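Write out the 3D structure for:
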Amino acid sequence: MAVQSFGSGLKSHVHFHILVSDGVYFPDGNYFALGFWDQPALLSELRHSILKSLVARNCLQPETAKLLESWPLDRSGFSAFVGDPISQPADRPRLQRVLNYILRRL
């Protein structure tokens, strides 16, 4: 995960870039896939968790959080991208591009 404090035009826009594995490698080299990510369900859960956390920290009123959760996901201000899996070592260049993006190394 990398915290980003700006968006295009260097305007303040705090957000996170997170790379998440869709499986687990074991010490013996075996890999266990956790399954396909459901993007809408993931996005809904992220929004709920973030708003709940902001309310718990007294950074957001419960009524405001409830209003924000009532908005359609595609207009909520929250986003999550679920791309095709990246396999090693064949997709090493693709993995490098994703990591460079996350860390803002162009």
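The chain has three helices and four strands.
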